[in-house]
Design a protein that fits this description.
Largest sheet: 6 strands, mixed
Helix content: 25-40%
Distance between the termini: 58 Å
Order of helices and strands: HEEEEEEEHEEHEHHH
Structural class: alpha+beta
Length: 172
């Protein structure tokens, strides 16, 4: 079967349109975000890890300044949920995919506030300089100086807590 010039041109155009559509779709994901944990959300069935930040795991305990302990990961996730609910939808600018095939992104509420920065500045997460390049160090300094969120007491870095929980050496 011989393919005409017009048929091959149509196929090439179709492939080009699909390629453009796929790359545009990968640039941003917009929709109502649901919280998976303190640094991961889901929009339209897509898992999105917040870039350059790390939050305590849901099972992770942190110490209060007065000596008690609390599930700081659950608290971080609940705070993130309230923050996102205040201004919907959420828009995430995709940076890459991680080893778990989640999108890694910088996300924004409808009012323009950056979710990643808020997470650190509110004390519900930390600047993960290994990935952020120190982009959120100023936000972390604010939270730490105010003694809010995880900074109100003692805690293990989330990457250290995950490693200990898994019985391996931390990679952070």
């Amino acid at each position: 079967m011989k393919i005409s010039y017009f048929q091959s041109a149509a196929v090439a155009l179709f492939v080009a349109v699909l390629s453009c559509h796929s790359s545009l779709a990968a640039e941003a994901i917009v929709g109502r975000a649901s919280v998976v944990d303190g640094d991961t959300i889901e929009i339209r069935g897509q898992r999105i890890r917040l870039h350059g930040v790390d939050a305590p795991e849901s099972w992770q305990l942190c110490e209060e300044g007065a000596g008690g302990s609390y599930l700081c990961g659950k608290e971080a996730a609940a705070a993130l949920d309230r923050f996102l609910a205040a201004s919907r939808p959420t828009r995430c600018k995709i940076i890459e995919r991680d080893r778990y095939e989640r999108f890694v992104a910088t996300c924004f509420r409808a009012d323009g506030r950056e979710v990643n920065r808020w997470l650190v500045q509110s004390g519900n997460g930390i600047d993960w300089a290994k990935y952020s390049g120190g982009n959120y160090a100023d936000a972390q300094k604010i939270a730490r100086s105010k003694g809010i969120g995880i900074w109100r007491g003692r805690f293990s870095l989330p990457c250290e807590a995950r490693a200990e929980h898994a019985g391996r050496e931390p990679s952070c």
